[in-house]
Amino acid sequence: MKNLRLVLGDQLCRDLSALAGLDATHDVVLMLEVREETTYVRHHRQKIVLILSAMRHFAARLSDEGITVDYVRLDAEHNTGSFGGELQRALARHSVDRVIATEPGEWRVLAMMQGWENDLGVPVEIREDTRFLCSHERFQRWAQGRKGLRMEFFYREMRRETGWLMHGAEPEGGRWNYDSENRKALPAGLESPRRRRFPPDELTREVVDLVREHCGEHFGDLDGFGWAVTRDDALAALGEFVAEFLPRFGDYQDAMRDGDDFLFHAVLSPYLNIGLLVPREVCEAALHAWQEGRVPLAAVEGFVRQILGWREYVRGLYWLRMPDYAASNFLDARRPLPAFYWTGETRMRCVRATVEATRRNAYAHHIQRLMITGNFALLAGIAPAEVEDWYLAVYADAFEWVELPNTHGMALHADGGILGSKPYAASGAYIDRMSDYCAGCAYSPKVKLGEKACPFNFLYWDFLINNREHLAGNPRMAMPYRTLDRMSGERRDAIRRDAAAFLEALDAGGMV
Ligand code: FAD
Ligand code: DLZ
Ligand code: SF4
User: Fold this and answer.
1) Atom of ligand 2 nearest to the CA of 8
2) Looking at domain 136-321, does it have CATH number 2.30.42.10?
């Protein structure tokens, strides 16, 4: 039997289910660079280079093994620009009995894939993506019959199942979660170590030129591209992270510093999400360092929680709830996305710094995504779909299965609390405590009203006022509503006035 085995740009893993049982004498691996995928949102140019270059390196690795790879380049003559169109052309080139694919990471692509058998008249086998630690079936079993789908309980079950950080039936150290120890601000003199970047080789330089030519209007710097595009280099990045950064990952997980773009974070999400690394080996590398006494328990627990907990949980939730999940808009947020999400032109230094870092690196760490750009979008009532398109475009690690629950659920509370028990809304005081942004800002986090006031301050209270009917009944919001209700009527009026003036200027495209 001759099979055509499709490998997508975020499936660059030698153990991919679509490659299982491959017979190199007959089978052909098909890889497709297509315009539709580079433009369904205007991806950051580094993200496109990362994916296309990693695809080309992966194809070369398969060829070196003696596997036949049919690789269609973006600028190939007659490239139709879509997966479906290119698969049809490939079927005319190869007479095969069957197409084998691994399920994609996005609902949009799964819907396409499910139509191929009918449209193309060839059997299409869609296999489960076995790179994850929790299968769809396992997640559904966990979710079944539960009133709330809190990540913490899912995580505990996964800890029990993997045996990671367990001492018999008990969590290592007696606690499941060391989150409360992961919220330190950065001490003034503490520098994060220099992080290795991977200078582009000839193949990557070719892709950089291609992307410069074809995606000129896309967001994002191309100069200084330094992502790993091979498994070997991604493994080197993992090794460096575990040795140099992980020991302090827990302590400063929530900190932000202007100009220090990566701090003690892993910066491994793009590699995990496109298949250069798999979650099991990443967690095991961290656990091994802890077993050898090189990493404290709080740091390794914090890290494992992100991957075994959050990453698996958001994927489970995405596939459990899609396609309806994306359509909800619990807080009825409708404002268009402000232009400064693309230009960075705002007087709010925290937002400007986050957008500029995003443009430089196709990366911002979790707290910048959640508590700066996400928090602003939540407080200002930006329409979820517009915010989601932005997140999907600008980060190298953004694929809908992971981007959507984080944006729609965690940052915007647009799912009405399926993912998070309360909105992550915060005023300027939080940002001031966790970063150095406020010191150089045109606004002051200490000032609550008037021209100098930090917009996050009055927008925070205005958000609570506007969303009282949706949020006041939430026990976790009781305290802020009590504080709001203790304010004088004049103070509340002043908050509303300042917020309205700010939002009017925002809508008019003024410099805010
Ligand atoms: P670290 O902070 O060092 O964490 C280690 C690893 O844990 C990451 O590599 C990642 O694989 C995993 N992880 C951590 N937090 C999460 C999370 N909340 N959900 C899933 N995995 C997590 N992550 C993406 O991979 N793709 C996205 O498109 C994406 N969009 C996001 C949008 C918003 C609004 C928010 C608030 C978060 C988003 N995240 C996304 C989650 C998180 O911000 C990134 O995974 C993280 O910043 C990646 O950087 P890192 O590798 O340095 O992670
Ligand atoms: C994101 C992306 C881009 C920019 N380009 C391609 C491509 O040309 N070919 C490809 O196979 N995949 C690409 N991808 C990744 C896909 O968009 C991704 O596989 C789907 O979104 C499913 O997760
Ligand atoms: Fe951001 Fe407000 Fe601080 Fe300025 S004062 S950096 S707007 S939190």
Assistant:
1) 11
2) no
- Residue to substitute in 44, 240, 269 for testing ligand 1 pocket (most ligand atoms within 8 angstroms of CB): 269
CA 317 and chain centroid, separation: 14
- For residue range 353-402, list pLDDT tens digits in order: 999 999 999 999 999 999 999 999 999 999 999 999 999 999 999 999 99
Query: Which residue's CA is minimally distant from atom 2 of ligand 3?
Result: 454
For the CA of 45, the nearest ligand: 2
Q: Which ligand has the shortest distance to the CA of 43?
A: 2
pLDDT surpasses 80 at 190: yes
Q: What is the mean pLDDT of residues 149-164?
A: 97
Mean pLDDT of the chain: 96
Architecture of domain 340-507: Orthogonal Bundle (1.10)
For residue 457, the ligand 3 atom closest to its alpha carbon is 2
Please say whether the beta carbons of 301 and 165 come within 8 A: yes
Whether ligand 1 lies within 6 angstroms of the CB of 242 is answered as no
What are the pocket residues of ligand 2 if the criterion is a CB atom closer than 6 Å to any ligand atom?
8-10, 32-34, 37-38, 43, 48, 51, 104-106, 109, 399
Chain segment 29-70, per-residue pLDDT in tens: 999 999 999 999 999 999 999 999 999 999 999 999 999 999
Atom of ligand 3 nearest to the CA of 442: 4
Q: Is the CB of 431 under 6 A from ligand 3?
A: yes
CA of 433 to the centre of ligand 1 (A): 22
Q: Which two tokens stand for residue 174?
A: 């007696």
HEC secondary structure over 362-413 = CCCCHHHHHHHHHHHHHHHCECHHHHHHHHHHHCCCCCHHHHHHHHHHHHCC
Nearest protein Cα to ligand 3, atom 1? 350
What is the pLDDT, as a whole number, of residue 483?
Answer: 97
Token pair 């000839």 is at which residue?
202
Check residue 52 and give its pLDDT.
Answer: 98
Q: Which residues of 165-176 are buried (b: 16+ CB within 10 A; e: fewer)?
A: beeeeebbeeeb
* 101-106 mean pLDDT: 98
Domain map (residue ranges) of the chain: 3-127, 136-321, 340-507
DSSP secondary structure, 474-510, as one string: -GGGHHHHHHHHHS-HHHHHHHHHHHHHHHHHHHTT-
pTM over 0.85: yes
Considering the domain 3-127, what is its CATH architecture?
A: 3-Layer(aba) Sandwich (3.40)
